[in-house]
Structure formats: structure tokens, C-alpha cells
């Protein structure tokens, strides 16, 4: 467990990264040149029915006062002030099931979650490939309960720091202890029900977007018993890390015009390569930040096809040979 002082220090280091990542819900979104489009406006909505969501055993977020709320933006839906983590299964047709599974971690700067574009839509696409998918709605840092207050807090945050320094991976990990706990609980739940869901407990990977990519990497580096079989990091930070022995295959996708992570070097790729662990890196010319499953005219839209072929190359799109 992190000590209280270490966690506070980690959060202080992590704050700049969260400022940048939070822009996915306020400034970047699908990174389209439609800043004035009506769909860019954040509109509060009722919490959608989630009958298949399974509550994880990590408990309520300590000290949380603002209740969970949702809003629409970019013709998609987002969750905010998540205080209790859940996992929603998207199981494939049994006739197509490969026995592989993926935990899907949406992004949103640890302040919101892009539940549709980076969650449900990704999970449905994976299930169509025969891969069981599980959308992780992890606990979030608290924001003002009302939408005007939320928008004001985000504006103040961005005006305070023009271009924040990137924290170290160690500091990032220290600052997201609740989210790592949620990720560990997700892996534990899927493994505990693997037989009923027709999943091989040794073939469970994770894919994350932006902040979710940060959480995916942290799950490998500090998730103890989680041990993803493979990882996909979609437009996340690429700082160098100390690669654990036996680290899983890694897939990374980023747009060269990403305003947050495209100009920080490729240390993570170099770390995986130096450790002689499998890594595939796609640097798309255009796409911005937060493209997810949005259909755009840029080649970044092809990331899911690339990821799917990569899964196939590693044998996850067919049942494991006896």
C-alpha cells in the first residue's frame, strides 16, 4: 500500500498530467476541427441504465461528496464523479469466442470517463472479433457537482498552467492508487468467473485510452497480481520506464499531432525494445487526441484494425491450441 505522504506527493507530481489529460473532455474530444459544433456542448443527461454492470469490491472513493453524474458531448456520453467502480461485460457469440479477454479503460484525465467512444464501442468491436471485453468504470477525482461549476473549474485549471511539465511514471503511479486498485479488482473478477464466461485466465489483456492508457501501463508496473497478458496504449504518455521481467507484448498508437503526448519522445517504446520485449508502435500523421472509435478522415481511424491484426498475430483471435 502507498503511504499517505507518498500518495500526496504522487498526486502533486501527477497533477500536470491530469490537467493535460482532462482536456480530452473539454478541449480535445475527438480532436476535430469543429470547435463550434453544437455537439461540443456538454449537456447533463440522466445516468444511463447499466443492467449488466458489476460492482467491484474496492468500495466507495474515500471522502467523495459529489454524486456520479453523466453528460453528452461530441454525440457521445461521459461519466463524472464516479465514486464506485464497476465492470460491464461484453461477451462474444459463443460460436466465435476465442477464450481471450480485454479490460477496456476509457480516458478523461481521471476527471471524466469517455464511456461510449473509448468504452462501450471498443468493447462491442472486440466482442465482434470473438474477444470478451469488459469496460472498467473506475473511480475518478472529484469535480464540482453542477455543470457550470465543473466547466469553471476546468477553465481555471487550464489558465493556471500553460504547458505543465510531465511527471515521472513513478509519480503517476503513486497518484492513481484507487484506480490501480479498481484495475486489479477487474482482473480478479474476470479470472474468478473465467469458467462461466468461457475465458482463459491466462489470456486476459488490457487496452486504455489517454488516462486509461496511463492506468493500463500502471497496472503492469504496479498492479501486482493483475498481470495483463498483453496491453494496448492508445494516445497515452510515452515516458521511459523500467520494464518488468517478462513484460507482456505492447501495442501503442499515437497521432503525430497529438497536442499532449506527441512531442515527448518515445522512451516507452525504447524501454520495451531495450528489454527485448515485443512492442508495436503506430505513429499516425494526423488524428489529434481522443479519436477513439470516432470515424475521421485521418489514418488514425484505422488504429482498431491495426490493433485487431496485432491481436491476431499473437494468437488471440482464435482459440488457444490444445
UniProtKB/TrEMBL annotation:
Q: Identify the keywords attached in UniProt to this record, alphabetized.
A: Hydrolase, Ribonucleoprotein, Ribosomal protein, Signal
* UniProt KW Transmembrane helix keyword: no
A cellular component term, taken from the record's GO annotations: ribosome
MF GO annotations: hydrolase activity
Question: What sections of the protein cross the membrane?
Answer: none
Pinpoint the Dienelactone hydrolase domain residues.
109-295
* Pfam name, any one: DLH
* Signal peptide per UniProt: 1-35
| Keyword field contains Transmembrane | no
Question: What is the protein name stated in its UniProt record?
Answer: Alpha/beta hydrolase
Task: Give the originating organism.
Answer: Sphingomonas arantia
